[in-house]
Amino acid sequence: MKPLSEETLSRIDQELAGVGFSRQELQQIAPQIGAWMGEVAALEELELSEVEPSLTYFPEPL
Amino acid sequence: MAAFNLQEESIASLAPRIAKKEVSPVEMVHACLERIEAHNGRVKAFITVCSEHAIEAARSAEAEISAGRYRGPLHGIPISFKDLVATQGIRTTAGSKILANWIPEADATIVQRLKEAGAIMVGKANQHEFAYGPTGVNPHYGTAQNPWDTARIPGGSSSGSGVSVAGSLCLGSIGTDSGGSVRIPASLLGIVGLKPTYGLVSCQGIIPLAWSLDHAGPMTRTVADAALMLQAIVGYDPHDPASRNRAIPDYFQALQGDVKGLRVGLVKEYLDSPMEEGIKDATKAFVKQLESLGTQVEEVSLPQLKYASAVSFLIMASESMTYHRAYMKERAAEYGQDIRIRLGLGQFVLATQYIQAQRVRRVLYRHIQGALERFDLLLTPALPITAPRIEEREIRMGGKSIDVRPVLTRFTRSFNVTGHPALSLPGGLSPSGLPIGMQLIGRPFGEETLLRLGHAYQEAFPFPSLPSLA
User: Looking at this predicted complex, what is its ipTM?
Assistant: First the structure.
């Protein structure tokens, strides 16, 4: 998994998220995201074909 | 009325004397308010002190008890609430500037239940802003200080709740825990913190951090007091979608059961990870003490716990940013810098990563459940470190400099992911005289066993007195 550059983060923020972080703030966010990349990638490599998400919707009675 | 010493008392020791009218709730509340007046300017345990409300409630409690209408062991007991728990007519800031002037129109369910039990709120406790951090450092209301060494953090996010109990400013508090925020301050302050099973205690009326990780629980001096507070707050709440409708046991009665023969699994991966000097030795000593009570302690390997931090990160980042999205768009400058950055991380988590994290969460749950088929309880140190200094952002561990925040949550956040109940209780002092916490983890809705072993330990091996603030 390739670390996201500040430029990419900036575009996501401006074009999708809409918070409007400053360049200085994105410089702090980028390494923190980078620090998690390895562990997040490890999750994506797990074989989970038998596992449903624990998040399920169920209707509630009135 | 008989004298009492707030620094020596517990809820369980005072309740029978209040019932017999030997101790006055009014005098007790005045004693708490005097200590708060004397020390809160320095230790910053409270954001809001509710003096008038507390005195009025104490008078009412005393009148009821005098008239023979004693409600039970929390009647007349002074407590605090973390300031993200909604309290009708009383400012609820969540430790933030954003909600600095929010006055809720209704109590959270947990507040209603404690009021019905007769507990008296003396104030709203300081916290890490919006509960999004484990240190308790707060740029808006000041950082609560650790009574064991006021240059050190009390831990968070329920920092003021912990200090209000450890500093004998009241007898119990309600904190919240999404990655360790009850157990971290409990460990650093030498008190007891219980994160109940997910869904056992209603979170309705509590400002969320991450809905599927949030838990509310008691912080007290003793395990017996935690049992008494838990009894008052459990129960189905139709207004909380996570609330479970189950039969409620008598937690205080359950403390008297035998602990001989209980099987305890010592989590190998945590014990083998880098820790501050003294904590591994304290854990080994704790194991020997548990064995002396007749429990059987064995190491258990849980290798899949290595995924828990990333799962917790993805879920917390996504859910917290979802809640804060509107505020972040319109009032971002009003957040403290660290919270704004932490919330910002959530903008960059993919939906697929969030769903994957929820699936791995189920794997982790089954992993822990597998161990709990062989063991009644699991054991870890609560934290790999004792209280850092307030200004410390990084600490040296395992030959490296690392951010103090993930270190604080390393052993606690896994059980927010899985929802298992977890209890932090004092397990000794470090070579430098700071408290070390131990963490017991139980089966889902198995709080009785968790509390029973914790109580038996405290009865057999009393912890040194809490520090004086004078």
Answer: 0.90
